[in-house]
Amino acid sequence: MRENQTADWSIGCYVVQNQMNRRASESRGNTVPYETYFAFPTVSEVEKTLGALARNIKTEVGLQLIEGVLINLKNNYPRLQLSDYDIIDIIQQGDALYDAEQLLETTEEKEAFDIDKQRNDLLSAILEKITDEMIDEVGSFGSEEVVGNKEVNNEDEETNGDEEADGNDEEANNDEAGNASNEEDQDGDEEQSNATTVIEETNEDSDTNDDEAEKQVKRREQFREQ
């Protein structure tokens, strides 16, 4: 009663009885009365999943709500994990729904309130919120990956651009070297042509001198004959 801050002992006695039935008895070989009678483990699936967080459950509606969320996530998103804050918040929403019904006095008001429908609607809203948040996280991760790919592509483009520029520079240098070689070849051809022209002129001068020498010889022979 002190732990739960209530004076309602008529309900508290059943809580104590439940705790005693779920506790191992040393005098009976550490057997648990609940397990001996029902042949089921005393720890529920929710308690196994939540561990110490299960102590935050105060009402049956809170238990049903968090159980519905866990079952849905296990069937549809088995790798998704809720934070401790989210789990406690879901339990508190279910407990608040139960407390709201307890404030109603008449049966007609409780029937109009329809706590089962309220719980199902709340469960659907919670699952929709979890799904939306998961989709946003996946979208954000996808955007970061796209940005990373763009950066890599830009780096590749810059690298390719640098390589192309280097290739163009090398090609330009090769063209310049080729032009210089062609100019040297042209200069060599011109020098060879000039040398050939000099030789030809020398040969012509030599032929001319020979002709004059022959003429002089003929003149001398004619003079002697006279």
Question: Can you describe this structure in just a few lines?
Answer:
The protein contains 7 helices and no strands. With about 230 residues, the chain is mainly α.
Features:
single chain; 226 residues; mainly alpha
Description:
- There is one protein chain.
- The protein is mainly α.
- It has a domain at 1-42.
- It contains seven helices and no strands.
- It has helices at residues 9-21, 33-38, 45-50, 60-76, 84-102, 107-113, 115-225.
- α5 packs antiparallel against α7 (115-225).
- The protein starts with 8 loop residues before the first helix and ends with a helix.
Q: What is the secondary structure topology, with strand pairs?
A:
Blueprint: H1 9-21, H2 33-38, H3 45-50, H4 60-76, H5 84-102, H6 107-113, H7 115-225
Helix pairs in contact: 4-5, 4-7, 5-7
- What fraction of residues sit in β-strands? under 5%
Q: Helix/strand/pairing class, anyone?
A: mainly alpha
**Whole-Å distance between the termini?**
174 Å
Indicate the low-confidence ranges by residue numbers.
Answer: none
Gyration radius (Cα, Å) is 54 Å
Instruction: Describe the global form.
Output: rod-shaped
Rounded mean pLDDT is: 75
| Biggest beta-sheet profile | none
- Oligomeric grouping of the chains: single chain
SS element count, helices = 7
Number of strands: 0
Secondary-structure element pattern, one letter each: HHHHHHH
**Helical amount among residues, as a percent range?**
over 70%
